[in-house]
Amino acid sequence: VRNYKEIFRDNPYIKNVIEVGYVKWGETLLKTLDEFDVVGEIRFGIGKWHQRNKIVFNQEFSGWQGIFDEFPKNYRDLETHELHHVQLTSKTMTLP
């Protein structure tokens, strides 16, 4: 995460959170995938799993990919789901 690591600290589904601050995200994501098998990338509501070697999570993401790629330009499209951004993250990442 860029900041607010404490929000994720006590989640039983998250083993560790690294706070990276303000960096070039694409570069940081690639470095992080060298260290972990699974990385969750969240763009203010839409969450996407990146998996290095094996499939740990099955995620149907095709319906979200366009909004994810163009974030934040089409963020208003998310309002049609009528979910708070934390609920939307749980839904897109298939978390309980």
- Tell the overall outline: globular
Q: Which stretches are low in confidence, meaning pLDDT under 50 for 5 or more residues running?
A: none
Tell me about the largest β-sheet: 2 strands, antiparallel
Look at the structure and give the mean pLDDT: 81
Total helical segments: 3
Which strands sit side by side, in order, in the main sheet? 1-2
Describe the overall structure.
The protein is an alpha+beta fold and 96 residues long. It is 26% helix and 12% strand. The chain has helices at residues 25-35, 65-70, 85-92; strands spanning 38-43, 46-51. The chain has a two-stranded antiparallel sheet. The longest helix is centred in the first third of the chain and has 11 residues, at 25-35. The two termini are 20 Å apart. The model has no long low-confidence stretch (mean pLDDT 81).
Give the gist of this structure.
With 96 residues, this protein is α+β, with helices and mostly antiparallel strands. The protein is built from three helices and two strands, in the order H-E-E-H-H. The longest helix is centred in the first third of the chain and has 11 residues, at 25-35.
Which structural traits does this protein have?
96 residues, alpha+beta
How would you summarize the topology of this molecule?
Blueprint: H1 25-35, E1 38-43, E2 46-51, H2 65-70, H3 85-92
Antiparallel strand pairs: 1-2
